[in-house]
Every structure is written in C-alpha cells, then in structure tokens.
Design goal:
Blueprint: H1 7-34, H2 36-56, H3 65-82, H4 100-114
Helix pairs in contact: 1-2, 1-3, 1-4, 2-4, 3-4
C-alpha cells in the first residue's frame, strides 16, 4: 500500500517519467501525429498498460499513477538492457519500425501525460 508520506517515491517516479519523455515520448508523439499506424500501436499499448495496472496490481487505486507508471517503465527498461533490441527510434520515421518494448515505453509516456 502506498504511504501518503512517501514523497520521495513520487519525486523519483516523476524523474523517471520525465527522462522517458525525453527518450521516447517526444519523438513517438511526433510520429503518431504523422503516421496513423504508429498512433494506433501506441494507443493499443497504452490500453494494455492501463489494464495491467488497473487489473493486475492489487490496490492500484491507492498508489499515485506516476508511481505505478514509473515502476512499470523501469521493468521494461530493464528488459531493454538485458535483451538485444533494435536501437531507440531517433526520428518520427524510425517509429514506424519500432519494436514492442519501445512502443510500450512510448505508451507509458502517453499515459503519464494524460494523468
């Protein structure tokens, strides 16, 4: 359960999400505005992440969304570090061929902006 006095956890989550916004969110949103397929892929990933956090995390309604999203993103980032995946998409054009993990991280950015 989230302890209301855990401001440090929220600060850490925001730092993680801000860093992720710089690495994934900004260019992914540019790509989504240009390419409908990228937009649809990110939307589908965002729906999946939302379901995972809402249905798969006990008492998720008691934890700030930023903390949930940052925790989920950290798990994906760890998977990225351990696996040999395609390079981080650098331009909107690159997002058309982005792999699952990068799209999932872009979706986390979308949800973080919406919360």
């Amino acid at each position: 359960m989230f302890v209301p006095g855990s401001a440090l956890l929220v600060v850490s989550a925001r730092k993680t999400l801000n860093r992720l916004q710089r690495t994934h969110g900004a260019t992914a949103m540019e790509a989504a505005a240009i390419f409908p397929g990228v937009c649809a892929a990110i939307d589908q990933h965002a729906a999946a992440v939302r379901d995972i956090l809402d249905l798969g995390v006990e008492n998720s309604n008691l934890v700030p969304v930023s903390v949930l999203l940052a925790g989920y993103a950290r798990g994906i980032l760890e998977d990225l570090r351990e696996a040999e995946h395609a390079a981080l998409p650098q331009s909107p054009l690159d997002w058309q061929d982005a792999d699952w993990l990068h799209l999932r991280l872009a979706a986390v950015c979308t949800l973080a902006r919406a919360s």
